[in-house]
Write a structure and sequence with these properties.
The protein is an alpha+beta fold and 235 residues long. The chain has three domains: 59 residues, Winged helix-like DNA-binding domain superfamily/Winged helix DNA-binding domain (Arc Repressor Mutant, subunit A, Orthogonal Bundle), CATH 1.10.10.10; 46 residues; 96 residues, SH3 type barrels, CATH 2.30.30. It contains eight helices and seven strands, in the order αααββααααβββββα. The protein has a five-stranded antiparallel β-sheet. Strand 5 and strand 6 form a beta hairpin.
Length: 235
């Protein structure tokens, strides 16, 4: 969790309690050390967040304190709503629900005069959109990408050929009618695109990809830039 997100969560934890909250309780919920909580509390107090209390006793947030409203323009709100609507109509259940939660959170955070742009936006997604039909749970693919884990795939090509692959997943791409996994394929020793509706099995492997954070993505970006640059510019 990023530090900025952690500071926000500490405020939320204190906001929902009417009694002092100990550093131990905060640390347990955020899965960090008490020392980290003490440091974060000190930083918040230094930023003039009205927190009272002390180590061993607990901390209270002044009930009158409120964070500034989320300041978005009507265009920014409608852009966020449009994106969330598209995701909700083209994703698996977890991501679709997360997109709907984003809309609810934006509605709760913006000032009252901006809420009509959420309730009745001037733009929208075509109704009737349905997520692609797939055998696998793409949530497993997202988890593999986040944890930098290898995936064991069973893949059926367009010509019907079925192969087993060990891949290093890079990114899960979304198109109007299907999803596409971009990954380094150990069998082909190159980056490959795998349509998710042709993946019949996807299992997280025990091993990680063995590269530093971000390195696989950079290698893919370099591969993509070379592959798709104009022919006359290739050396």
């Amino acid at each position: 969790m990023r530090r900025a997100d952690r500071l926000f969560q500490i405020i939320q934890i204190l906001r929902r309690s009417t009694r002092p909250v100990t550093a131990a309780d905060i640390a347990e919920e955020l899965e960090v050390s008490k020392r980290t909580v003490y440091r974060d509390i000190g930083d918040l107090i230094g930023q003039r967040v009205p927190i009272s209390g002390e180590a061993g006793f607990g901390y209270l947030l002044d009930p009158a304190y409120d964070m500034p409203p989320l300041m978005l323009t009507p265009d920014e709100i409608e852009a966020a709503i449009l994106g969330a609507q598209w995701v909700a109509g083209h994703s698996d259940t977890l991501i679709a629900n997360a997109a709907r939660d984003v809309i609810v959170k934006i509605a709760a955070a913006v000032p009252e005069n901006l809420r009509p742009f959420i309730a009745e936006p001037s733009i929208g997604v075509k109704p009737g959109s349905r997520p692609p039909t797939e055998i696998i749970d793409v949530a497993d693919i997202r988890e593999a990408i986040r944890q930098r884990r290898k995936l064991a795939l069973c893949y059926q090509a367009e010509n019907g050929e079925i192969t087993d692959r060990i891949v290093w997943p890079v990114i899960l791409g979304y198109a109007e009618s299907h999803r596409m996994l971009v990954a380094w394929c150990e069998l082909r020793q190159d980056f490959r695109h795998f349509r998710c509706d042709r993946i019949t099995r996807a299992i997280l492997c025990d091993g990680t990809i063995g590269l530093r954070v971000g390195e696989l993505r950079r290698k893919w970006q370099q591969w993509r830039a070379e592959r798709f640059k104009p022919i006359q510019n290739r050396t």
